[in-house]
């Protein structure tokens, strides 16, 4: 398998602290790749660097074979990198479908002047994209809530809406920042199934979690961060046995 | 704990058909209201018509805030800067360039859009309070520039000008009203159709978080500039109508007083609700106009301030928030809940 995303030697310094220290991550095409580590390990910083949200002090990021180091995040998004955030970024008082339609942004071809009077072209294109969004909603079992307002949904289902929005952009790489955060245990299992299903239907997914149990069961490959450094990388069965991981993560009294 | 990811059993929600019916109904109601409003100037006296024209001007400014603050989430205090520029530009375009309003107003809108762009560009790197203060400062700068420019009448301002629309003078308040209504309708159509498109969704994404907006491919800066340019065009047209309405344009058109009263209208009416803004624009303008009759003329701004505070505390989405489908849904849930608990407490 070829690497869809390849980050090499990434460094991010905050004053004297090196939050991310020469990190290499390689996400294979079609894989479900986990990025784990205790709180403060630098996971989110690393992901922010990869997705163009945070600055890269040193190192390179290659995506689909192109060097995308330091590219603005909206450009990365249009190249096919979609991501979700730890906190909700939804439009609370709009419907689910309108929220997910926002993910189609890069695929909609009509331009600003068309929208001023809602020309037939806008009507036609919106209808087409809505059909595609419905398909995504069905895939995530959200179709029946399509016209419900996001604020009315439970926390767990709102997180699904965010996932749906990222999927609606038809990404080649899906980056999920702690999708299980705040979910009750039974929901975490459901989420795991959803992620596995997405991987099986061809998505490449990079998922950040500190819930090690979830990732161990669903990931093809994992990268473990601790204090800004990669301490293990490989298939879950191997990572689980790594003494560094056990010491840094499992062995300590860390309630992750 | 129960599953929250899988779908709970819940009452059916209105589908796309119901939405379409509701929007058709709203369009029809709007058309009826428009006809009634258009009839008012023909049926009443001049003073009522003047008041109505002023309400329309203020409502236009309110719409620009709906766009900037309500949809895009940008807290701007630059309305007076754009409004004042529009007021002066209308006079200059009419008197010095000699254009009829039918073309001149388009030019004024373009000037407003340009200033809006500049305002957006200088505030790209700041947000929240800093952005508000920067836009406020732009108003002060313009006010002082105008005050010291003899060509624009200095601190005395400009009087004795003529603004025409298709050759007819706008000193007729009925004509002014009709033009105001036309422009207001046009802008409302533009905003509501934009809102249902990718542009509206991009604005809302920027409102929730510029970082997240970029992650779905929205170039947050570009949309911020677009929002400012549109708000600039709307506010400048409001200013142009104002100069025709008041027949005097002086540096006070840049005053913070105007910005704050429009802010009050937009917040109390509901930043995300166009009807709410229109209703409150009418109510507060009427109140302000007849404050002297009630004997509270000195306290107008105090009342405005109190209304802002009360609204932010008790109605964060303003009066318009009361009629929003979210509030309706909440009431529906409450009713459902009541009837359930009466029926033995089982869902």
TrEMBL record, chain A:
Keyword ATP-binding assigned: yes
The protein's name in its UniProt record: ABC transporter ATP-binding protein
Organism name: Nocardioides immobilis
GO cellular component, one term: plasma membrane
InterPro entries xrefs: AAA+_ATPase, ABC_AA/LPS_Transport, ABC_transporter-like_ATP-bd, BCA_ABC_TP_C, P-loop_NTPase
Example of a GO biological process term: L-alanine transport
ABC transporter domain span: 5-252
Molecular function per GO: ATP binding; ATP hydrolysis activity; L-isoleucine transmembrane transporter activity; L-phenylalanine transmembrane transporter activity; L-valine transmembrane transporter activity
UniProtKB/TrEMBL annotation, chain B:
Organism, scientific name: Nocardioides immobilis
Classification of source organism: Bacteria, Bacillati, Actinomycetota, Actinomycetes, Propionibacteriales
GO cellular component: plasma membrane
Domain of life the protein comes from: Bacteria
Membrane topology: Multi-pass membrane protein
Record-linked InterPro entries: ABC_transp_permease, LivM-like
Major subcellular location class: membrane
Keyword Transmembrane tagged: yes
Localization in the cell: Cell membrane
Any one GO MF annotation of this record: branched-chain amino acid transmembrane transporter activity
Membrane spanning residue stretches: 24-44, 50-68, 99-122, 129-146, 175-194, 225-248, 260-284, 296-315
PANTHER family referenced in this protein's UniProt entry, alphabetically: HIGH-AFFINITY BRANCHED-CHAIN AMINO ACID TRANSPORT SYSTEM PERMEASE, HIGH-AFFINITY BRANCHED-CHAIN AMINO ACID TRANSPORT SYSTEM PERMEASE PROTEIN LIVM
Protein name, UniProt field: Branched-chain amino acid ABC transporter permease
Keyword entries, A-Z: Cell membrane, Membrane, Transmembrane, Transmembrane helix
Coiled-coil stretches noted in the UniProt entry, renumbered to this chain: none
